[in-house]
Amino acid sequence: MTSYPVMQLSGASRLECPRHTSGSWGWCTQSMRKARLQELLWMLFISELQAATEPHEEKYVLAAGETLNVQCPFSIQKYAYSQKAWQRLMDRAEPLTLVFTTSVSGTPSQVRMGRYFLEDIPSEAMLNVQMTNLQVEDSGLYRCVIYHPPKDPDILSPLVRLVVIKDPLGTTVSDKNPTQNLAQISTLPPTTTKAQSTLLNSPKTVTQLLPKSTADISSPGLGVNITNATDVTRYGFRVPVISIVILVLCGLLSKSLVFTVLLAVTQRSFGP
Amino acid sequence: MSAPCALLAWALLALLGLGLGGPREEPPNPCCPIVPRREWRAPASKCSKKLRLPVRYVVVSHTADSPCDCPASCLKQAQNVHNYHSGTLNWCDVGYNFLIGEDGLVYEGRGWDTKGDHTGPTWNPISIGISFMGNYMERSPPRRALRAAQSLLACGVAQGKLSPRYEVKGHRDVQRTLSPGDQLYEIIQTWPHYHE
């Protein structure tokens, strides 16, 4: 008498096909494969849900060659006289410090280290970060920190998930920033803030019309943020928000569609 | 086998819908009436700079001025603040996006869409500035005023003016100032969206 194992859709199902006649064994392995596939899909689905509920990162999606601008606020009371740093979080290693400020005087300071640029404005409780000429390899997780080695750094908000995509149109985006020196240049600030603002006219995008050559995303919205500067200035502020919402919904709906399609396919291909 | 399959697909979609929910904080109808500009007889705003929505930060300050605890006196006080900002300081409008009175009412200032003049050049374009009318170094605002402020912020999220992950900061967190006063500062540090 042949007995067939009970199919379980989730959980640990130790399915073993009894070695019987070729016909039933064939059907059994097929069903087993189907069940395993379904288990896998369920696991993927659940892990997606879990990912959605973990602590958030701000996602920045930019094309290669563009410039990333991030604003990291800090407590003026606690950190006006502290050094700050921009770090990249690595998979199985210590976070990599890419650039750090050296001034502890409580006055504005700027530091450039290759493509990385930091501007610390203690009087405004803001740290401005800039990464120019982005490469696809720059994609990853970054953070602003209060830097006081050997103590562990204090982490500032937001965590930055950077995704750099290859420029689909092949047009290189011109970079408004000056030459990229490899040596760390620590510029002690001029006494007037006016001189500072002229030096940094292009990164400071929130208070003026966005320059068209860089895609600066300093006040990110709900998630994936691909706003064109010209769209914002031409159509007002409602269009980018709606497009962001639509993009997020489409992304999430497409995942659910993928799962249902895969399940339907497994049902049909392995079904009796 | 197609019926269970369809059922499974719908269950997936329903679960995903729930998963999409995320942090749901707003009650059924989160927006409560506030005192609009016309009601407190505010002159037309001459401000033109807009905020990029949704806004990520809320800066809480105090006017450090006289308090008011009745609707009539708070209406007068809102006018006073406006006169000071637009007249003496020659600003395009009252500096705050919203004012909170000890009468428990919210007074519309520049509103959700217009950049305020409440914190400084870095924070004004990226935050909503709300100010409690009074001086809160030695005393706290009454609870009805705090509730009014919380209700306002919940409304902002519901209307898409504030990011659901907005952060509340005290004025003294981002500027060298005593505002919003020791007592009020202690209170806002307990708010769920407060982030130093």
UniProtKB/TrEMBL annotation, chain A:
It holds the Pfam family V-set. InterPro entries: Ig-like_dom (IPR007110), Ig-like_dom_sf (IPR036179), Ig-like_fold (IPR013783), Ig_sub (IPR003599), Ig_V-set (IPR013106). Cell surface receptor that plays important roles in innate and adaptive immunity by amplifying inflammatory responses. Upon activation by various ligands such as PGLYRP1, HMGB1 or HSP70, multimerizes and forms a complex with transmembrane adapter TYROBP/DAP12. In turn, initiates a SYK-mediated cascade of tyrosine phosphorylation, activating multiple downstream mediators such as BTK, MAPK1, MAPK3 or phospholipase C-gamma. GO terms for cellular component: plasma membrane. The gene is TREM1. This is Triggering receptor expressed on myeloid cells 1. The chain crosses the membrane at residues 241-265. It comes from Leptonychotes weddellii. It is a single-pass type I membrane protein. It comes from the Eukaryota. PROSITE patterns: IG_LIKE. The keyword Transmembrane applies. Keywords: Adaptive immunity, Cell membrane, Disulfide bond, Glycoprotein, Immunity, Immunoglobulin domain, Innate immunity, Membrane, Receptor, Signal, Transmembrane, Transmembrane helix. Monomer. Homomultimer; when activated. Interacts with TYROBP/DAP12. Interacts with TLR4. GO terms for biological process: adaptive immune response; innate immune response; neutrophil chemotaxis; neutrophil-mediated killing of gram-negative bacterium. PANTHER family: TRIGGERING RECEPTOR EXPRESSED ON MYELOID CELLS 1. It is found in: Cell membrane. Its main location: membrane. Residues 55-157 form the Ig-like domain.
UniProtKB/TrEMBL annotation, chain B:
GO terms for cellular component: extracellular region. SMART domains: Ami_2 (SM00644), PGRP (SM00701). The keyword Protease does not apply. GO terms for molecular function: N-acetylmuramoyl-L-alanine amidase activity; peptidoglycan binding; peptidoglycan immune receptor activity; zinc ion binding. Disulfide bonds join 31-155, 68-74. Residues 44-181 form the N-acetylmuramoyl-L-alanine amidase domain. Keywords: Antibiotic, Antimicrobial, Disulfide bond, Immunity, Innate immunity, Secreted, Signal. It is found in: Secreted. InterPro entries: Amidase/PGRP_sf, Amidase_domain, Peptidoglycan_recognition, PGRP, PGRP_domain_met/bac. GO terms for biological process: defense response to Gram-positive bacterium; detection of bacterium; innate immune response; peptidoglycan catabolic process. It holds the Pfam family Amidase_2. Residues 1-21 form the signal peptide. Residues 32-175 form the Peptidoglycan recognition protein family domain. PANTHER family: PEPTIDOGLYCAN RECOGNITION PROTEIN, PEPTIDOGLYCAN RECOGNITION PROTEIN 1. Belongs to the N-acetylmuramoyl-L-alanine amidase 2 family. Innate immunity protein that plays several important functions in antimicrobial and antitumor defense systems. This is Peptidoglycan-recognition protein. It comes from Leptonychotes weddellii (Weddell seal). The lineage of its organism: Eukaryota, Metazoa, Chordata, Craniata, Vertebrata.
